[in-house]
Amino acid sequence: MNIHPALHTPLCDMLGVEYPVMLAGMGTAGGYTLTAAVSNAGGLGMLGATFLGPDKLREWIRKTRQLTDKPFGVDILLPSAIPKDIDLTKVKDFIPKEHIEFIERLKKDHGVEKAKMWEWPMSEEFGRSQFRVVMEEKVPFFALGLGTPEWLIPEAHEGGMKIVSLCGNVKNAVRLKERGADIIIAQGYDAGGHTGRIGTFALVPQVVDAVRPTPVVAAGGIADGRGLVAALALGAIGGWVGTAFLATHECFVDFIELGMLDQRMIDAYQRKLIENDEEAEQITRIYSGKTTRAFKNKLNEIWDKSGLKTLPMPLQSLVMGDFVQGMMEKGEPEYFPMFAGQITGMIKKVRSTKEVMDDIVGGANRILNEYLPKTAKINR
Ligand SMILES: Cc1cc2nc3c(=O)[nH]c(=O)nc-3n(C[C@H](O)[C@H](O)[C@H](O)COP(=O)(O)O)c2cc1C
Questions:
Q1: Ligand 1 touching residue 340 (CB < 6 A)
Q2: CA of 304 to the centre of ligand 1 (A)
Q3: Counting runs of H as helices and runs of E as strands, what totals does the chain give?
Q4: Of all atoms in ligand 1, which is nearest to the CA of residue 48?
């Protein structure tokens, strides 16, 4: 392929990759198989490690290295304002009685007892233990959703690691720049997973202007070459792509070994991605207490009918996690958080990661080499 020079952005040099495409960190979907596949296809793979304890994380980093000799990174969710070391048994005391009654009733009605796998020990200490492993394993890029704690960046830089931080508005982008983030991901409302209030088209140029010269990568709604070229036109130096990689053979598979997903659930998830349009998701706080974009499902209906208010992070996930995971283990896809972005209507089939990457890069190349020069002539 004769690659247009505009596609060799400063991001390619910063990351040591061929194309300015980063796999978005996806802690429920992007394991070592997908991470390595994206890196092998010329982008930067990003291991979704949100739920991995230190031993598993080390194992998955090493498994990624067995599958690729190209650079990749690790992504976790670590809100800046998180308690130092949460004692989950004590935190549970803050859950209101009505919420406990609601979930106990739900579990009873659906025959769920204790799920085999569930507890996200979301605390600063857990985040630190993940960070230590990433440093020890000398992974060059560490990405953080939902904020980046102040202590982390100087320590990372001392160890030669670059920090990639997500944000959804200008205020947080400026805070991340001041803390020293190396790359800022401006993630628009269109995105799957935790997401903010500002659409990608409005957000990206405003973040670019506010944090210059810190490099910005666009996220939310990039699924093919058109999205990537648009991101570059908005001033970003690349795209951070999540939902488009969900419909690949390499996605989700490693999460089976964690007990978080099984093949029935993966098939149901990918069917939803193929069969649905851009209106199939909704923004909800029911899974984590913070706004996430996920497919509408029965659990949303049940929650809405209950009239209960969602609780702040991490209480909401403590209320819901066990039930949701228990229903997954029973093979009930209508209760599982299937995070996905608004590009869903563009997904027509499950492909290989390489096909998705070639589609994004090849499409962007055609636009830059052929389509834009032609329309520029017509408009003149
Ligand atoms: C299934 C799924 C899981 C996600 N999990 C995480 C996560 O663990 N950490 C994180 O930083 N972002 C997470 N996100 C958000 C992505 O990093 C990214 O910002 C988003 O997918 C980009 O928008 P797009 O889905 O339109 O491509 C998740 C997104 C999806 C779709």
A1: yes
A2: 24
A3: 15, 11
A4: 8
